[in-house]
Design goal:
Chain lengths: 241, 241
């Protein structure tokens, strides 16, 4: 039975981290809200159910038969071994999950660069605070997070091609997405600092060239980044340097 | 061998969600930075290691032998079955993890009520923005998150005593901590809304009375809430109503 992914249509957003894993593995999945005649109504029907015992708080969530699994890192922890994108060693799976949760935290901070005060308001209603938060994000948080991920690659005893072990895992795919997203949202800031992250850039390039990923990126299933998603390009928030 | 918990000394913080599970289970653990002669230096030694392959981004992290596991939800996912605080059904473990990750998101938003702009600055340097963010948090986010958790209790086919299934899991303990923390940080706002969450308050009370938890709460190991932690009481951020 095909996996069912439930997420907003029209954006890459958090759903994209799951899509990349499913696409790399060539898994059979249905992106429910993008199906003709379905739309986000199918997603809200699950979220607003008054009888479903395991109702999710927010998208994305995955349905595998009767099981409903919410949260990107949780979905990937569940799918990883099934898709061949997790280590065989069970202890290392918690290491990968720990890295994925650090990606989750970073992505939440990316979101807050354009929504520092109130997620229910528009960006335009918190633009001045967004400028302050983005300046701090570029100055403090990008170096802290990317510096950390670069260090994990460098300290991998199996070599710097992968975050954990000597084979691709889903967190490698997620870091591809993080680098792509940051480069879209903050092109000047990233141009200023990219020399400091050679391992991450090499990982990004290697993922781009994987046949299933290359096919996916060239397909209409891969939406373009836009200003409705997590990674948004507002020139006034990018580095002035 | 005893589990080793690494977290800041002096605050409950995120480490408290792990402590509650270890204490409830009566597990053998060492709160490393609170040991005489250790302190946070022992924590930084792991985090700043240039040879450790699985270096954590931030505390808390758990050491179990050679395995280093970072992030609260990840630690609890790992410990849950070992401590008898996770469902026997493997699918349901992902349901519990999904709920724990929703707690994680909520706790991050609690933190941002006093640090909406820059985590590296003091609260006093972002007080006006903190007022705006806290107002939105009280108006929009507390009802959204607590309303969701209340609904999960209500829709549990096994009854509203537990979040998942018919026995205590670690996410029940985490929700105890969330209610305690919110009541400390935002007493007026919580007094205004608590009638809407009878299930969560009953769960909080039931957890308080569990023998191992009651013993822990009365011990010096349970630090008081304070203004260095996640849940901080700044009267000017609490509801004006």
């Amino acid at each position: 039975m095909a996996y069912e992914l439930y997420y907003w249509d029209g954006i890459q957003g958090r759903g994209e981290f799951v899509r990349l894993a499913l696409e790399e593995a060539g898994a059979d999945y249905i992106d429910i809200t993008r199906q003709p005649g379905r739309g986000t109504g199918a997603m809200f029907a699950v979220m607003e159910s008054e009888s479903e015992p395991h109702v999710p708080f927010a998208p994305p969530f995955l349905k595998d038969g009767d099981l409903i699994i919410p949260h990107v890192a949780n979905i990937l922890f569940y799918l990883g071994p099934k898709l061949g994108l997790a280590p065989d060693d069970e202890g290392l799976r918690y290491v990968v999950n720990g890295l994925q949760l650090t990606v989750t935290d970073f992505v939440a901070e990316v979101h807050d660069t354009h929504h520092p005060i109130d997620t229910s308001l528009y960006y335009e209603d918190q633009k001045e605070e967004a400028k302050a938060r983005s300046a701090a994000f570029i100055r403090e948080r990008i170096p802290k997070f990317l510096g950390y991920f670069e260090r994990v690659l460098r300290q991998n005893p199996e070599g710097p091609d992968h975050m954990v072990g000597n084979a691709l895992t889903y967190v490698d795919l997620s870091l591809f997405q993080v680098i792509e997203g940051l480069t879209y949202a903050f092109p000047k800031a990233m141009a200023n600092c990219k020399a400091e992250y050679p391992g991450l850039l090499a990982l990004r390039d290697a993922v781009t060239k994987r046949p299933n990923i290359a096919r996916y990126l060239a397909s209409p299933r891969r939406l373009a980044f836009n200003e409705e998603g997590i990674f948004r390009h507002y020139p006034e928030l990018d580095s002035a340097e």
